[in-house]
Amino acid sequence: MDKINARDLRVGNWVYYDPNVFIEDEYEPTKEIEISQIESGEDIDLIIENCFLPIPLTEEILIKNGFPEDEWHGSFPEDKNGLLYIVLSSNKIFWEINDCRIELKSVHQLQNILQDLGIEKEIKV
């Protein structure tokens, strides 16, 4: 799984949290990785410890969040300017803008694009 750079995270981003990073006692039972939301700048600082991992952006997550299923070309209804155009091609997810394709691999990347475009949408994971 890819790592996340601290500069790529924002408050509100969804990530996997690995609580095992801080376990020093080898006899401590292994804890499960869980879904967590970044709540503060202090959370972002923890990325240095590698305790946060990206949540892969999948077709299922797109469906759950209102993208149309047919042919995998479409935008959120909230995008009045047509700037959020998502395409699924060769099992990869892309954001298309001005004839440019940018691959989206994780949920926090989609969240950041939504925020940058001024689309207020809470992503469900």
Q: Which regions contain 5 or more consecutive residues with pLDDT less than 50? A: none
Global Rg: 16 Å
Largest sheet: 4 strands, antiparallel
- Classify the beta-strand content into a percent band: 15-25%
Question: In which range does the helix fraction lie?
Answer: 10-25%
Give the oligomeric state of the chains in this entry, treating copies of one chain as homo and distinct chains as hetero: single chain
Instruction: Write down the overall mean pLDDT.
Output: 82
Figure out the total of helices: 3
What is the CA-CA span between the terminal residues?
Answer: 17 Å
Shape: elongated
Which class of secondary structure composition applies to the elements? alpha+beta
Strand order of the largest sheet: 4-5-6-7
Strand tally is: 7
The helix-strand sequence is EEHEHEEEEH
Describe this structure in words.
There is one protein chain. This protein starts with 13 loop residues before the first strand and ends in a 9-residue tail after the last helix. By secondary structure, it is an alpha+beta fold. The radius of gyration is 16 Å and the shape is elongated. The chain is built from three helices and seven strands; from the N terminus they run E-E-H-E-H-E-E-E-E-H. It has a four-stranded antiparallel β-sheet with strand order 4-5-6-7, covered by helices on one side. Strands 2-1-3 form a three-stranded antiparallel β-sheet. Strand 6 and strand 7 form a beta hairpin. Helix content is 17%, strand content 22%.
